[in-house]
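User: Hi! I have a protein structure encoded as tokens and I'd like to know what sequence might fold into it. I'm fairly new to this, so please keep things simple.
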């Protein structure tokens, strides 16, 4: 489990998050793994926000629905209980719009996903360039939302 946070210097609000990735091993998933080339993985995260004022937030959290994986189970919840509005952004990412109230708010996400058990391809001989030398036409591929 990894934890990270970024308090604001003005004292107005702060946030922290914990992210968990763990394989789910049981009789069902072990049998499934022997018959195919997938691995069942449990993923999840928790975000803790604290603010002196109400805050409108857009979050991109969850598994993609167009990847080479299959989402078996997913859930999300917010404490205190407040509505989450779903929408798609210009990159077709699934987004959550949440109006955080004053005080502390916790957002959690949990999923079980079947993923390919083969490692991602490695390209150790690939050309490495500093960002300042990248051609303009590839800069869109460096945006964080491209991989969410």
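Assistant: Happy to help. Inverse folding works backwards from shape to sequence: for each of the 148 positions I chose a residue that suits the local structure. Here it is:
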């Amino acid at each position: 489990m990894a934890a990270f946070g970024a308090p604001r210097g003005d004292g107005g609000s702060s946030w922290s998050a914990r992210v968990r990735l763990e394989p789910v091993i049981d009789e069902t998933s072990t049998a499934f793994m022997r018959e195919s080339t997938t691995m069942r993985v449990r993923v999840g995260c928790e975000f803790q926000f604290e603010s002196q004022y109400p805050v409108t937030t857009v979050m991109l959290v969850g598994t993609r629905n167009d990847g080479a994986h299959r989402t078996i189970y997913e859930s999300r919840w917010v404490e205190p209980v407040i509505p989450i509005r779903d929408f798609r952004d210009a990159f077709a990412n699934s987004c959550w719009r949440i109006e955080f109230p004053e005080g502390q708010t916790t957002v959690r996400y949990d999923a079980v996903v079947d993923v390919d058990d083969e490692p991602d391809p490695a390209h150790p001989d690939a050309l490495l360039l500093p960002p300042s030398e990248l051609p303009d036409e590839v800069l869109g591929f460096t945006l964080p939302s491209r991989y969410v």
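A useful reference point when you look it over: Confidence is low (pLDDT under 50) at residues 1-9, 29-34. Feel free to ask if any position seems puzzling.
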